[in-house]
Amino acid sequence: MPDSLKLGQPLPAEVTAIRLLDASGEEVKLDTLLSKGSTLIILLRHFGCIACCEHVNAWLPHLERFTACGIQLYFVGNGQPRYLEGFVERHQLSGKPITVLTDPQRSLYDAVGMVRSITSNLRPTSIKNAIRAFTRGNRQTAIEGNPNQQGGILFFDKQRNLVFVHRERTLGDHLPVDTVYNKVVETLNLNR
Asked: How much is the pTM?
């Protein structure tokens, strides 16, 4: 983790000032997202990724379970804003309790130490995960962002403290949704 980030502590001002983009290209400061309460950000590799398709499909049946706990949910990719509409349509996210944003400069990814390298896609685990995603009916639709960027999970409590981070090491290195849910519930219970 970058030296400026500490679990259980608020993010430094230079990180909360990072601006993400919505589908129309409008800027949204990270600080604005975090001001809405407990926040879970699911960082995607890119919007056309086969592993991200699998990851989104794993999350879809569980979104309401998180929002019932008062969690704000965001998918954040790193492609251009023009890709968001197609991503939302492909995954039938319209009307779902999750917001899709993008970070084309990968500022948030860099600030929280997400992996980005060519070799992270070429490891045997990456290939195995891509085959798993394919056999589950997921498809690579395009390259809509940096294909060498890996994703992850960020969870912030109501006080804007970063309390949980998962950095994917390779393509498809997703945490099971139940694991994330249990960690979120544990954090919420500790903060009561």
From this structure: 0.88
The DSSP-derived string for 15-80 is: HHT-EEE-TT--EEEHHHHHTTSSEEEEE-S-TT-HHHHHHHHHHGGGHHHHHTTT-EEEEEE-S-
Three-state secondary structure call for residue 177: helix
Instruction: Map out the domains of the chain as residue ranges.
Output: 9-190
Q: Could you say which architecture CATH assigns to the domain 9-190?
A: 3-Layer(aba) Sandwich (3.40)
- Local structure of 142: helix, strand or coil: coil
User: pLDDT of 9-68, one tens digit each?
Assistant: 888 889 999 999 999 999 999 999 999 999 999 999 878 787 887 888 999 999 999 999
Q: Specify the DSSP element, H or E, that contains 180.
A: helix 177-190
